[in-house]
Amino acid sequence: MVDRLVNSEANARRIAMVESCFGSSGQSLAEQGRVLVGEGVLTKMCRKKPKARQFFLFNDILVYGNIVINKKKYNKQHVIPLEEVKLESLRDEGQYRNGWLIRTASKSFAVYAATSTEKEEWMAHIEKCIEDLLRKSGKQPPSEHAAVWVPDNEATICMHCKKTQFTVLNRRHHCRKCGSVVCGPCSSKKFLLRGQSEKPLRVCLQCYDELNRAQSRSIPPNQQRPPAAKATDTVAGASGGESSQDDDSDDEDERNTAEEKHDEPKFYGDGEKTEEINNHSSKDSK
Ligand SMILES: [Zn+2]
Ligand SMILES: [Zn+2]
Fold first, then answer.
1. Ion ligand 1: residues, Cβ under 5 Å
2. Which of 85, 163, 220, 248 is the most interior residue, by most CB within 10 Å?
3. Residues 204-248: pLDDT tens digits?
């Protein structure tokens, strides 16, 4: 289906529409061979709580943003290359239903669809795009993924020492390796986590020890450097410089008051009678 849509005018129009909805807050999305496969609203688990986000599935990237005005204006655009994505279905738990994880080396998070059918549709379409991409490129999916952060409100005490109560002064921090919510002293160390950042990142003491052990096992003893060369021992300003919005840049939405009624996601190319699964893309650009 994707091949037949590549050169279609409708596809070009849809992509131009997405671009204009993001305006100057987004990057240019029109590219040779790129197809908008589907779009819709999903609930993304952010640091504080679940929030509605507009998602656009292209055949090679997943784009999402905050909804400023429903169907008209989005901002805080994020672009995730699908080649790096791995999906993982989540079991329904209480209010969290129809969810799955979107995992990449640099960022992993949970999203939730309104119904189980929508979840199936989204997951199937995303998986299909990933599969096609990897088949074309011959690449392997990445094996390491960033931790999924435990939401703030799921931890009232530090998940490492199990003692520190979180307050305005005793802030929550997230271990970048395991995603736990931990207190400052329990996350005073940093470690270089390739794939997530060039700089050492905050990790909990347990992960720090494990990472150090793993590192010394993998490096021959004569080449070993003291851990300080790779891992800095203190977090600058750990006592409070880092605030709750330390990373998840899409976490804050200023005036997302839009109390929209839910629209079902749209997947283009569905319902057209020839669902071409094959990949003979002779007109594949480059
Ligand atoms: Zn602690
Ligand atoms: Zn950890």
1. 158, 160-161, 164, 183, 186
2. 85
3. 999 999 999 998 888 765 665 554 444 444 454 444 434 333 444
Find the 172 Cα to ligand 1 centroid distance in Å.
9
Instruction: Decide: pTM greater than 0.85.
Output: no
For the chain, domains (ranges, CATH) are 2-145+250-267 (2.30.29.30), 152-229 (3.30.40.10)
> What pLDDT score does 66 carry?
96
Distance 199 CA to ligand 2 centre (A): 17
Which one of the ligands is nearest to 172 CA?
1
Question: Cα of 186 to ligand 1 centre, how many Å?
Answer: 4
Q: How far apart are CA 99 and CA 115, in angstroms?
A: 9
> What does each C-alpha distance from 74 to 45, 235, 256 come to in angstroms?
18, 35, 10
Burial of 170 (0-12, 13-18, 19+ CB in 10 A): middle
Cβ atoms of 41 and 30 closer than 8 Å: no
Distance CA 104, CA 147 (A): 9
Amino acid at position 149, single letter: W
Helix ranges, the chain (H): 2-6, 9-22, 116-137, 205-218
CB 4 within 8 A of CB 61: no
